[in-house]
Write a structure and sequence with these properties.
5 strands; alpha+beta
Length: 283
């Protein structure tokens, strides 16, 4: 099958979306940072160093500890250990974020209804591969990336992760992604599991008790607690032959499957009390 021709308008739209997303997360290069500077971007630097294993107090104060941690990171990357943040060091610190949002041309595969789901899952697995995780209490650049710049204890981010992966996929094939999002997904980003379920119910896409073996990779799952309350979400990767267990990739979870977790993880879940959204809208 012939691969689709790369469309410059689509690539431009995708790059604009990813640049805006990186900016909202505090991941665009802020200029030179050094000792005695303070503020938001010093906090971002401290967060990035911590995520790379050079753990610091994240207080927005560029002191001796931040300088030494930065020097050690620069040594690890085999660049001049100046203890001053410049563009090359920033590029290395933020490389996992940029690499997780590569442009994938919309795949031409036989099942049209699965195409958006397949591409969405590809991005979700990319975030898993790059180790997307939070800092304590739902904070940090990964959370802000998925949550349109928001983070903090009042921002559980599992639904934001699902929404952001879908939006990345939409921007990979539509030259008018805002119209596409309105038609196929949400008019705005969703940070709420209940909102995903309500949208799916309204559009006839919510499956409450399907045969799990018919679910396609990239299907959204929702944990249902009863009384129209959905508490956690992620994507189906595969279904066990028995149909009683699904493999997932999900954000804001932990090794026990909590809704208030720490990272994007691959998990294996019982299908009990799960609802599904196998179709985000016909393409």
């Amino acid at each position: 099958m012939q691969r689709p021709t790369l469309s410059p308008p689509i690539l431009h739209s995708f790059r604009r979306f990813t640049t805006e997303s990186l900016e909202s997360a505090g991941l665009l290069y802020p200029g030179i940072l050094k000792r005695r500077q303070t503020g938001f971007f010093v906090r971002c630097l401290q967060e990035l160093l911590t995520l790379h294993g050079f753990c610091l107090s994240i207080d927005g104060q560029f002191g001796m500890a931040t300088q030494w941690a930065l020097q050690r990171f620069q040594e690890q990357e085999e660049i001049s250990p100046t203890g001053i943040l410049e563009d090359n060091t920033w590029r290395l610190l933020t490389r996992p974020f940029a690499e997780s949002m590569q442009f994938f041309p919309f795949p031409m595969i036989p099942s049209i209804n699965c195409s958006l789901q397949s591409l969405t899952l590809k991005y979700a697995l990319g975030f898993l591969l790059k180790g997307a995780s939070e800092l304590p209490q739902n904070r940090g650049p990964w959370v802000r990336l998925f949550m349109n710049g928001f983070d903090g204890s009042t921002y559980p981010w599992c639904a934001g992760f699902v929404s952001f992966c879908i939006r990345l996929a939409i921007h990979s094939f539509s030259s008018d992604p805002m119209q596409t999002e309105m038609k196929f997904w949400f008019t705005n980003e969703s940070f709420s599991c209940d909102r995903i379920a309500q949208w799916a119910t309204k559009n006839g896409h919510l499956l409450r008790s399907p045969d799990p073996t018919i679910l396609v990779p990239g299907t959204i799952f929702l944990v249902y607690k009863g009384n129209n309350d959905w508490t956690h979400t992620g994507f189906v990767v595969s279904v066990a032959p028995s149909g009683n267990v699904i493999e997932t990739v999900e954000g804001n979870t932990n090794f026990s499957g909590s809704r208030e977790g720490i990272a994007v993880l691959r998990r294996f879940r019982s299908t009990k009390n799960l609802h599904y959204v196998p179709c985000y809208g016909p393409l």
